[in-house]
Amino acid sequence: MKSTAFLTPMALIMAMMVQDASAHGRLLVPPHRGYIGKLAQFRGLVPTNFEDHGLNAGGIGQTKGGKHGICGDKFSGKRLHETGGEYGKFPQHREKVIGACYVPG
């Protein structure tokens, strides 16, 4: 009985100490379109995206209905990383675009 009286408040205190983490990351191999402008061989061809670690296709609220933007862009917003967008201007090698982005699914 004594241990339950001690453990219950301790468990509540520990639960209140848990913090939310907003993690960021980027795909380096193969490099994604937002990162490719930072590579030496593509410098000057594509503008550098300094927010390339924060692409999330609009977040969980946007993507849970299947509306997932291509290349990490928000489905209903500007598509900066798609072909022709600010970070989607790449030279073409034969039939493939260097730094191509593919439709999810």
TrEMBL record:
It comes from the Eukaryota. Keywords: Signal. Residues 1-23 form the signal peptide. This is Uncharacterized protein.
